[in-house]
Design a protein that fits this description.
Helix content is 24%, strand content 26%. With 266 residues, it is an alpha/beta fold. It has a single domain, classed as 4-Layer Sandwich (Metallo-beta-lactamase, Chain A), CATH 3.60.15. The strands form two sheets. It has a seven-stranded mixed β-sheet with strand order 6-5-4-3-2-1-14. It is globular, with a radius of gyration of 17 Å. Bound molecules: zinc ion (ZN). The site of zinc ion has 5 residues, from loops.
Length: 266
């Protein structure tokens, strides 16, 4: 069993500030465990909007400290621990989010760290497990040098690049997943340091050969050019089913490679 809800599909400063696309991260329900990955600004609001009960969250995962990935992690933990009164759950995060990095303070408040059953700080190649699901941190090249991606292996394998530029060998950490989630900030060959564009995504998909790929974390230029058109180009070039995330999109990996439902309201 593996079901996902995308509580956003936007990324980068402008898409976040204007909420041109939502930035609440995504949730995964797999093998009896509920994950919330990268709860950016609006995660609580989007969860309510798209029918996700954040109280049921078991694991909060934060790939790095940038606001579009981490802003609402305290709010989600507050909701799942009933205001830090009922300790439960696991936080899996990178160094900058949990401990702080160089001159930046961590995003996690101490009161919420104490309200969790456990906290796992992950560096690339570190692994941990929750019930029968293993989580491995994958490497990135990003403006937060401690950023990680995640490879989550249970009855399905879901591999998430997080924010990174494309680099040779990146595919080895995301190979042959049932679902590869790529953060694609820019369209076509329009490059931006430390992030991927469509060309990069195509190269990664060709090398990593997932069963299904979802593109998300769209900046304004992708949004203007049309995420679905970008996904179609990637699909044509790779032969792999590629979906552009939409805010509120639900996926059931057991049923098919097409979204179960797409949110159509405002
Ligand atoms: Zn980032």
């Amino acid at each position: 069993m593996a079901k996902l809800v995308f509580l956003g599909s936007g990324g980068g400063r402008y898409a976040m500030a204007t909420q041109a696309r939502a930035t609440g991260g995504f949730t995964i329900e797999m093998d009896g465990v509920s994950f919330h990955v990268d709860p950016g600004p609006g995660a609580l609001v989007r969860a309510k909007q798209y029918g996700v009960n954040v109280k049921n969250t078991d694991v909060v995962m934060v790939s790095h400290v940038h606001l579009d990935h981490s802003n609402d992690c305290n709010a989600i933990i507050d909701a799942m621990t009933e205001g830090a009164k009922n300790p439960k759950g696991v936080l899996i995060g990178n160094v900058s989010a949990i401990k702080g990095y160089e001159n930046d303070t961590p995003v996690m408040l101490k009161i919420y760290l104490k309200s969790l059953e456990s906290t796992v700080v992950m560096r690339p190649s570190d692994t941990t497990s929750i019930k029968n699901i293993s989580v491995k941190a994958t490497p990135t090249k990003h403006t937060d040098p401690t950023a990680v991606g995640f490879r989550i292996e249970g009855s399905k394998t879901i591999s998430y690049t997080s924010d990174t530029e494309y680099f040779p060998g990146l595919f080895k950490h995301h190979k042959n997943a049932d679902l590869l989630i790529i953060n694609m900030l820019r369209p076509d060959n329009d490059s931006w340091p430390m992030h991927m564009n469509l060309e990069d995504a195509v190269n990664l998909i060709k090398e990593a050969t997932p069963r299904l790929c979802v593109l998300q974390h769209f900046g304004m230029k992708v949004i203007e050019r049309g995420p679905e058109k970008q996904a179609k180009k990637a699909e044509k070039e790779t032969g792999v089913r590629v979906i552009a995330a939409e805010d509120g999109m639900k996926l059931d990996l057991n049923k098919s490679s097409t979204p179960l439902s797409k949110y159509t309201g405002k």
